[in-house]
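Researcher: Go.
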Amino acid sequence: MELQKTDTESNGGLSDEEYEPFRHRRVKKPNSTNGTIIHMLKGSLGTGILAMPSAFRNGGLVFGVIGTTLVGLIYAHCVYLLVSTSQKSCKRTRVPVLGFSETAQSVFRHGPAPTQRFANAAKAYIDYSLLIVSFFSVCVYLLFIATTLRDVINNELGIDWDTRIYILLTAVPLIFVTQVRDLRYLVPFSALANTLILVTFGITLYYIFREPIDLSNRELFPEITALPSFFGTVVYAVEGIGVVLPVENKMKHPQHFLACPGVVSIVLSFITVLYNVTGFFGYARYGPGTRASVTLNLPSEEKLAVSTQLLAALAILFTLGIYYYVPMDILWRKVKHYFPVERHNIAQIGIRFGILVAMTGLALGVPELEPFIGLVGSICSATLGLLTPIVLDTVFRWSTPGAFGVFRWRMVKNVILMAFGLFILIVGTYFSIKDIVEIYG
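Model: Structure:
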């Protein structure tokens, strides 16, 4: 990121309260508040919304609404914890901006004595976790596009090509999409992808509501064994923690991010309502036969339905650019010193292409969409989206008298939220791996 940090000494004797990080930010090509909303929407909108009926199939109609709303509120709170902790760390260390991993490093370095020696490890953990999360998401997106193309093309042409062939075909346009490097240039792609997803959503709702819906044979509450899959899918659908600080750090008016109403409240309120509507009525329409993406349930003999499936695939194709931005920014900062300056351009091209090849290979190895979504949600999204912001908030407050409030209620709240995140991480991962083993065992 092209950000200039203020020299600590230049701030003289400013206290934490007097130092205002936003005044010292020097951001080249800042994003407007509307542009930030678009990026945040794109961070959570994607295959996730189309997987919500599948989540409700596991959670039931009543519990599905309750659980999705609960996850939306928890995730919104975790985003608030992460951004507010980062902003408070900026004030404490008198620097204008901190990224995700730099926030973790700062929190541990200036936290209680036992945590200080883990500061560098915390930074490395966030960096590599973001790489894993983002690249796993690339695999999910590849599988979604390939599965959609398989269903459409095989049906239209009367052929029986394997999903793996379509994974390889999908990788070809991604060679070009994943080479876009500037976040500002990705705004049109994000806006177009959001538009296509909303069009897909609208047409999907048309098919869901065009005939009366019978709820008599639909589950209202889940089986206990289905809960991990439900929460794993919902957390995956909602979570987009990797883009939060990068887009907040590039805002022209960062004070609008946590305002009420602000970017976080607007985006996540909209997302939660949208996901509940899609999940509830999608499962209500298609019942036990609901597939990993609801678009795959649309009638293959109707041209409108087929075009909707292709629009969804195209929207996800454009999404890959923003998902590539965060991990490649992290990775390039770690490796660019190994290359001469005059070879930086060719090096970036080669690295971006090489990672795409690796992720394509992983998708070829596990070409099943539903268990992969649950696995990514359980391992990656629960760790970064839920657990990490809670840990950072707890460590930051630990040495500050009264920071946890009356009766240390913030500590109690954090412990409860951490238990929820650990439940998704441990139990969800177990059942997702179990499903994959059963498919390929």
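Model: The chain has one domain: 29-440.
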